[in-house]
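Cast an eye over this sequence plus tokens and explain the fold to me:
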Amino acid sequence: MSASRASRKLLASTLRASQHRAPAAATPLTSRSSIRGAATFVPPHQANAISVLPTNVDPSSPEYQENAQQMGEVIARLETLTKKVRQGGPPKARDKHIARNKMLPRDRVTALIDPGTSFLELSSLAGEGLYEEDVPAGGIITGVGVVEGVTCMIVANDSTVKGGTYYPITVKKHLRAQAIAEENNLP
């Protein structure tokens, strides 16, 4: 059987299976949940199409344990940096912003995107350790989000970082966001 014929057959059986079932939310995997760590909520007709890749990794080996520990430390550092960046500028600047009844930049982005949709932030660690002073997220928040049902590139200046000053990394990040928007036809 040719590959295209096999894929058409699989697609047809998937469509038939979904037509006979009432549309429902994704159900937990039954037999594969213990085997597969990723994709724990997949419709059954898709779960059977997911192949499990064989591995020679031994999680009980000392080398694996050492690598796992090092990766845990790196992830903890990344989470710490990301949490720091999400705070924006210094507390004094944030408090001044709030005292003037202004929304913080990340709150503006959250209010802008459609409820229940996500925001994919780009280059959140831009400017980290680049300058003597802190420049969280390069002083600008960029990312992809859904606004009124349309996927858009969103750019928000963070005025809590040095009053909204543009650093060279801010300009680079802004230009990169515009290039991504152009390449992907995003408004």
